[in-house]
What we know:
This is ABC transporter ATP-binding protein. Its main location: membrane. Keywords: Antibiotic resistance, ATP-binding, Cell membrane, Membrane, Nucleotide-binding, Translocase, Transport. It is found in: Cell membrane. The protein contains 10 helices and 13 strands. A hairpin with a 2-residue loop joins strand 8 and strand 9 (208-213). Helix 2 (94-103) crosses helix 3 (111-118). By secondary structure, the protein is of the alpha/beta class. The two termini are 39 Å apart. The protein is globular and about 70 Å long. It has 2 domains: 3-220, 3-Layer(aba) Sandwich (Rossmann fold), CATH 3.40.50; 226-283.
Amino acid sequence: MAQTIEVTGLRKRYGDVRAVDGVTFAVEEGEFFGILGPNGAGKTTTLEIIEGLREPDEGDLTVLGLSPWPRNPKLLPRIGVQLQASAFFERLTAREQLQTFGSLYGVPAKKADAMLELVGLDDKADVRVEKLSGGQAQRLSIACALVHDPELLFLDEPTAALDPQARRNLWDVLREISTEGRSIVLTTHYMDEAESLCDRVAIMDAGKILKLGPPAVLVRGLDAPARISVASGVLAVEDARVLPGADEAGDDGVSLTISTRDPSAVVAAMAAKDALDGVQIRGATLEDVFLELTGREYRA
Length: 300
């Protein structure tokens, strides 16, 4: 399959800080690719280098077969960029905003209405951008990045600070965009977002890629126990700990949780004791992989 992005040995330093330290990966044509990592991991710097906004200190890089640095005008019509913080022209409506962005690429003004419909803002066409909610502004930002019909789309934490409903609505928009065959590169702090949207993810920390692959493959590769929870008091902790297949058990006053690598044996034993009230079974997730690789300490 053709490679949309090829990165080899990418490095970027700021004084003694190695913001990007030997990063290597490729993004395939039509792929939804995620870059995950804690604050300061190097995600945004990596993205800005690929977009041609920053010059790398070392490494080889091509985007759609071209070098993005020095700033390559041949790439600009072929890529779309949605930054962490979006800035719009003041006092313009959503439609006027899109028409203005489109005019920079020679896009007909009528394209604005089609883009508003794509991101679910057709009913906000005549609303000034400062009157839009946070989720609506994020969707407009993505529409601006798509108005010239780019082959490759970059999204830097597009759902940051959105409420759960707005996040889920934006996911639907991104899935629809992905089905059109575009390549999408996403950075995000939300593991559920990456697990739901991305074909593959790269987990970064301290400027390096620690793991890369499809989310489900990374989760399966983590030797983590399943967790079985039932309502507190359904079963005594002492009894739970001696169930066949149980590794550990604890009760926080709300739920009794049992860790196990043999959930079927534990559930069968609990069923025999009529202790399945409110049962929930949770396997490992991408968040478990992320925490295993990057640690649990607070990042400023």
